[in-house]
Amino acid sequence: MFMQVKKIVFILLIGMLLACLYPVISQAADNLNNYTEMIPKFNTSIAIVGSIIILLLGLFVWEPVPIGIIALAVPVILVALNLWTKVSNEQALSGFSNSATVTIMAMFVLSRGIQNSGAVQLLGNKLESFTGDNQKKQVGTITAITGFIASIINNTPVVAAFVPMVTNLGRRTKVSPSKLLIPLSYASMLGGTITLLGTSTNILASQVSARLINHPFGMFEFTKLGIIVFGVGFIYLVTVGYYLIPERIKVESKSLLKDYKMEKFLTEVKIDDNSPLLGKSIGEAFKNLDKDLDVIQMTREGEQFMEPLDVKTIRAGDHLVIRAAKETLLKFIKNKGISLLLDIKINQNQLEDSVQGQKIIEVVIPDNSFMTGQTINNVNFLERYDASLLAIKHNEKISYKNLKSFRLKSGNVLLLLVTDATLKRLDNNMSFIIEDDVERPNYSSSKIFLALGILLSVIILASMNIISIAIATLGGVIAMVATNLVKPNEVYEAINWEVVFLLAGLIPLGVAIEQTGTAQFIASQLLQVTGIFPPVVILGIFYYFTVLLTNIISNNATAVLMIPVAVNAAEQIGANPFAFVLAVTFAASAAFSSPIGYQTNLMIYGPGGYRFRDFIRVGAPLEIILAIIVPLFISIFWGI
């Protein structure tokens, strides 16, 4: 009897569920019938443009050359195949003159002016006095400050300025920097979604939206959604995320040499009285070798010397610290009159000399550095900066051998022995991020107010449509230079040319995707799989698909590729295309589960000692949460 009742109840529940779902299923079926009639036929043009997209994605992941250079080839290919791509010479070059490209170039310079004024550093310097050694308070404060600043200036220079501050804050307060750097990067991405100026993706998406649906973004058009997204991210980072972030860097260790496990590669030797090297310079004796071996430091009668050592003449009794694998060193010193001092263990205190200003530091290579794609030898780095290279950290690995021929990428970390003079030179160069306290000049409040006043003027002029955002930001650049907040030569250094080249190459690709029907075809294929769902669910699927793509390639490339597809999908199911544009825009800046998907993640990858899976563990849950939150609030605010 009981089993029969259970069966009846079960059948009734199934019936009620089907009755509830019938209207949704019926509407979805009608939508499916409507857009299947609109599916474009596959043709040669779609095949060629699709092949270009696939090739481009593969090259972006493989990255045989910087992605900016890869993108520059796109206009050439589009014109060469214009019979099928339908892209004219003018359209192929439109990326260079595009208002989005101009605005983004100007925003890099405005961000440099804000940095030069000391506004960002001033806030960063207040961190320790406010948070003390309270870890959760540190995470919350870093997230709040970074998000606020990243909402009004480009988020990449914000992270570049904060990385050394946050790292040293952690070390001084006995908090693992690993606990603080992921929140720093994530907060910059979340804050970048609050206003139009927060990230280059917003500006680019606005231009694409204007071209496709005649609806550019207003300065604060999506601010209410951005604040909700930032709020959700903030709560996640100070609660669940905080416990998921591992402590990869142990704060107990005060020695970078120990952190890098350098003990196997640093050895002290002594020059004997009968050495055939006596009277030769170090450059003559050591530089013309086929062996991976470098002299890091010389000690003579208690005085230490480091780079440049080439001209130093070798004398009996000199002590040399050599970086080499033990087997390489043993082969070299054979019959050379050199004695190993195995009883002396090289430590950081021995290499550093506070009197002469010698110090071991970490230097991060940012994405806009002239060092990316180069080797140490290519740019004569050690000679140019009088530094000794000890090791290179890349991704989760550390390289100790063949360092001078190691091809550098953004996110790599160099372990260097430098002098105070070298440290200041590196700090003044935008091609490096110094992982150490560097003495900086006192910033005047007048400069800070002036820089913020210029930025505020740009925002007001653009938001009130008095002048276009491109002209407003260019005016801001002129004002920054005129007030000496940015020196003329700094204008060129401040611009991330890889981003500029990427936009210049990909904007015409977006035109080809739209004009050839490729966007419509891809949208129809996606809708064949997802079209049975209600529009809000399809919106969520497009959001998450974009998130997966932006974790693999750059955020700007994802926006260019996905916005035309999303707009066509919306039109095919009779939905609001602007809602789909917004979903893709927010998703393109949500690369939380990959260190390679977003520039700021790469910048903290090495300094935080992270592993690839750390980003998946911390970022994937946040991506899933936002894949629900963003489509839901887009449907509430703008309708679907």
TrEMBL record:
<keyword id="KW-0812">Transmembrane</keyword>
<dbReference type="InterPro" id="IPR036721">
    <property type="entry name" value="RCK_C_sf"/>
</dbReference>
<feature type="transmembrane region" description="Helical">
    <location>
        <begin position="577"/>
        <end position="598"/>
    </location>
</feature>
<keyword id="KW-0472">Membrane</keyword>
<feature type="transmembrane region" description="Helical">
    <location>
        <begin position="525"/>
        <end position="546"/>
    </location>
</feature>
<feature type="domain" description="RCK C-terminal">
    <location>
        <begin position="254"/>
        <end position="338"/>
    </location>
</feature>
<dbReference type="Pfam" id="PF02080">
    <property type="entry name" value="TrkA_C"/>
</dbReference>
<keyword id="KW-0677">Repeat</keyword>
<feature type="transmembrane region" description="Helical">
    <location>
        <begin position="618"/>
        <end position="638"/>
    </location>
</feature>
<feature type="transmembrane region" description="Helical">
    <location>
        <begin position="67"/>
        <end position="85"/>
    </location>
</feature>
<dbReference type="GO" id="GO:0008324">
    <property type="term" value="F:monoatomic cation transmembrane transporter activity"/>
</dbReference>
<feature type="transmembrane region" description="Helical">
    <location>
        <begin position="44"/>
        <end position="62"/>
    </location>
</feature>
<feature type="domain" description="RCK C-terminal">
    <location>
        <begin position="348"/>
        <end position="432"/>
    </location>
</feature>
<dbReference type="Pfam" id="PF03600">
    <property type="entry name" value="CitMHS"/>
</dbReference>
<dbReference type="InterPro" id="IPR051679">
    <property type="entry name" value="DASS-Related_Transporters"/>
</dbReference>
<feature type="transmembrane region" description="Helical">
    <location>
        <begin position="552"/>
        <end position="570"/>
    </location>
</feature>
<dbReference type="InterPro" id="IPR006037">
    <property type="entry name" value="RCK_C"/>
</dbReference>
<dbReference type="GO" id="GO:0006813">
    <property type="term" value="P:potassium ion transport"/>
</dbReference>
<feature type="transmembrane region" description="Helical">
    <location>
        <begin position="449"/>
        <end position="482"/>
    </location>
</feature>
<keyword id="KW-0813">Transport</keyword>
<feature type="transmembrane region" description="Helical">
    <location>
        <begin position="494"/>
        <end position="513"/>
    </location>
</feature>
<dbReference type="InterPro" id="IPR004680">
    <property type="entry name" value="Cit_transptr-like_dom"/>
</dbReference>
<protein>
    <submittedName>
        <fullName>TrkA family protein</fullName>
    </submittedName>
</protein>
<keyword id="KW-1133">Transmembrane helix</keyword>
<feature type="transmembrane region" description="Helical">
    <location>
        <begin position="180"/>
        <end position="205"/>
    </location>
</feature>
<feature type="transmembrane region" description="Helical">
    <location>
        <begin position="225"/>
        <end position="245"/>
    </location>
</feature>
<dbReference type="GO" id="GO:0005886">
    <property type="term" value="C:plasma membrane"/>
</dbReference>
